[in-house]
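Budget justification note: compute hours in this period were largely spent on complex prediction jobs such as the one shown. Inputs:
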Amino acid sequence: MSSNAPGPQGPQEYEEFDLGSHVGEDHVVGEAPSEAAHPTLRSELRGYIVGLVLAALLTAGSFWSLQEHVIYGPGIVMALIVFGLAQVGIHLVYFLHLTTSPDNTNNALALAFGVLFVSFVFFGSIWVMYHMNHNMMPGVALQQMRGG
Amino acid sequence: MSAPSTALRAGRDPYHVGHRAPGAGVPEYTGHGAGGPAPKRIVVGYGFWIFILSDVILFSCFFATYTVLIQARNGGPGPREIFDLHTTAAETACLLLSSFACGLTSLAVARHNLLWSEVFLAITGLLGLTFLGLEAHEFYGLVTQGDGPTRSAFLTAFFALVGCHGVHVSAGILWLGTMMAQFPAKGFKESIRHRYLCFSLFWHALDIIWIGIFTVVYLIGTITS
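Corresponding output:
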């Protein structure tokens, strides 16, 4: 019994990893599931509805910002990026249930690595190609002049 | 007293990656490695999450290609000429509602409710099919008016990115049909629930990819061209 750590007795409060749904996890046999580990149908349903409403509002915001004179012209792209990123966050939190609980640490770290890699690929490509096009410009223009 | 069981567990599963030992109870700090191996549900979800992130990285290459090639039109049409944002808005609504229905299915599956699982899965699938129909209609219109993927580098990148997403949705609908058949046939046993967990991750992730597509391809594409 050397590893008998003094832990809290009774229903232990631990956060279940949760990409999917809050319920369905295993628990100590014979113990009544605690309210914290087993949210009710109502609370879970509310989570999905809140997620749906927020996502719908952000989507509507994205399409609405394309209207003339709603947002200062040069700022539209930035507004769209902000709306998009916010909606991704909403989906991660309310639909994929990515939280900061201990069981989600690995998922969050994997996501952070994924985001890092995606930004390398996406912004790196744009950056490299922009400068390459910039340096190629005189050659291309000359070719077009010769061709035309 | 705990020595034999610890040795047994260590022999069977030295790195604590599999099932929790029978009767070991709930670890206090699951996820930190201190409370014993994580439940299989967590391991399954983590593995599939890694796959999804690799898929997202694949999509990021297509996004980068599209963004780099958006001006390479060879005299062909640009985003402003060929995109109908009403179709895009309808597709977005379909996928968002489909993702929501998929979440409701998760609630029903967790409660082992066959009827509602099947109903919400059917709604999820029908919305997905509507999305695919809208996309196929858009592609068909573009190809028949001569703006197919062979027209310009911009259109190649467009068809590759949006088509790749469409292929993913099609695969997801096949998976969804399989789940609809397996719930009645095999019941809500653990392996089937894990399979459904992976499906719901996949379906929600497709909606997240679509956020990127309608933002970058359709909206930003339309206003910057």
